[in-house]
Design a protein that fits this description.
alpha/beta, nine-stranded mixed β-sheet, four-stranded antiparallel β-sheet, globular
Length: 393
């Protein structure tokens, strides 16, 4: 772990920055599946917000186009703390060129006063973790909200003028049936939100859910059933007018997540806060995943972080792996002639099998991307590398 007096400098001003990610790790309680860094040490919230403001000062960059407050649970911050953050974002980076400002919320945190606070801030997009509309499955996940609170939260946000709402769903719960999942998707559609993300329940090492799996308390969903659930998701949402623009993401026309799309296009971004990642096109860095060490490091002028310099193979792998997640696919013009030849050679089996298609300028998955789900090797077209790719929230 590296310590640098005065912190890192931001990328050169001429480097176009996609956005600013701010990690708010505080949670009232931990969900059993979450692998992101979080803490229940709420007493650190004000010192943490102060440290974020100082880190902004240390890491200036321009211009920004998106801002994303993720977690953890950003909605656990007080109104004054949120206002302080946006005051500094505007002071340090400016908000005039920012088109999308997202905050993640828990549905039960969305009260009338909270919605009014958002209306006073530059926030124009809210992402909520609904996960499921079954109170039984929510209880299993240790989520704090109930199914009916999701609908109430959407109504309050609409009344506050939020015209861009996204919700997260999960499928593949132990014991969940296809009919259960179809019901969740239908209820999500009834909310008439602009964006939906859906993920198969994953068992990440270090989580409580993974421990339950190892102990035999729960078992993973059948792979064939998970594939059927994914097909239902695609068919139902596309029939309802949503664009399937990334493997796990669906949007009404004009409502793609601009911030997350920048990750899939390998556009530079800044990450602030404990465990946040940054990328400038040449290096990837990440702050220490510990609130106390993060805060004290910033306060002492010796921020605690690590980094890696990306070689050509790693950048190539990242580009292939992220771009093939999207409906646009991989722009071959971004590759060197040698990389292009290698990519097409490695992808030939998938092209022959109809899992990828090759146009005059791009190699991209079929329109629905569904053949990639479980069938396309993760390193298809890629250079096998020893380096671990570290992503962002």
């Amino acid at each position: 772990m590296h310590h640098r007096k005065g912190g890192r400098s931001g990328p050169a001003p001429q480097t176009a920055m996609a956005g600013l990610y701010i990690h708010i790790p505080f949670c009232k309680s931990r969900c059993i599946y979450c692998g992101f860094y979080s803490t229940t040490l709420s007493a650190w919230r004000q010192r943490y917000v102060d440290a974020l403001c100082r880190e902004m000062e240390q890491r200036r960059a321009e211009p920004l186009t998106t801002v994303y407050l993720g977690g953890g649970t950003p909605s656990q911050l007080t109104a004054d703390q949120l206002k302080q953050l946006f005051l500094y974002i505007n002071k340090v980076y400016g908000l005039d060129g920012v088109h999308e400002v997202t905050i993640e919320c828990n549905p039960d945190d969305v009260t009338a006063p909270f919605a009014e606070t958002l209306a006073e801030l530059p926030v124009n997009r809210v992402s909520m973790g609904a996960q499921t509309f079954s109170d039984e499955r929510l209880h299993f996940l240790h989520r704090r909200h109930t199914a009916c609170e999701v609908d109430m939260a959407v109504q309050l946000l609409r009344q506050a003028g939020i015209a861009n709402i996204s919700i997260d769903l999960m499928y593949g719960f132990p014991g969940e049936t296809l009919a259960d999942w179809q019901s969740d998707v239908r209820q999500a559609l009834d909310l008439d939100v602009e964006h939906l993300s859906a993920y198969a329940l994953s068992y990440e090492e270090g989580t409580s859910l993974y421990g339950m799996l190892q102990q035999g308390i729960v078992s993973e969903a059948d792979e064939e059933l998970s594939l059927q659930m994914y097909d239902v998701l695609i068919d139902t949402l596309t029939a309802a007018g949503y664009e399937h623009y990334e493997i796990s993401n669906f949007a009404r026309p004009g409502f793609r997540s601009q911030h997350n799309s920048s990750y899939w296009r390998a556009t530079p971004y800044i990450g602030l806060g404990a465990a946040a990642h940054s990328y400038d096109g040449r290096t990837r860095s990440w702050n220490v995943d510990d609130v106390e060490r993060y805060v004290t490091g910033i306060e002492c002028g010796t921020p605690c972080y690590d980094y890696e310099v990306l070689d050509d193979d790693t950048r190539y792998n990242d580009l292939v792996l992220t771009s093939l997640r999207t409906c646009e696919g991989l722009p071959l013009g971004l590759l060197t002639p040698q990389q292009r030849d290698y990519c097409l050679e490695q992808a030939q089996m998938l092209l022959d099998g109809g899992l990828l298609c090759h146009t005059a300028d791009d190699a991209h998955p079929p329109r629905t991307l569904r053949e990639q789900h479980g069938d396309v090797p993760a390193d298809a077209g890629g250079v096998r590398s020893e380096k671990k790719v570290k992503g962002n929230k």
